[in-house]
Fold this protein.
Amino acid sequence: YPPLVFVFQALMAGMVDTEDELEKLVKASLHNRSIPSDIVDHDIISRVAQSLGTEFVPCAAVVGGTLAQEVLKIITRKDMPINNWYTYDALKGDAITCTLKP
């Protein structure tokens, strides 16, 4: 999985206000899963921490459009919807879908 997925999973597990808190939460989450902590570098954590509490409107438009498309797939039963985790990196303009196993 891309490192950004692990950062978002850590964010969903707890509330953070600072970059240091986010880094501790990510490292604890990775440690609990026996995943090496160097998979997520400090640059990614720093980029995410800079945007804590903000909403990047173009990013919301891309994710909202993707969500609407997936809802239509479910309603029409025409195509298979995205399975599990969709990560959009607005800084790179890149998206990836990951199937997460329980």
Observations:
- The radius of gyration is 15 Å.
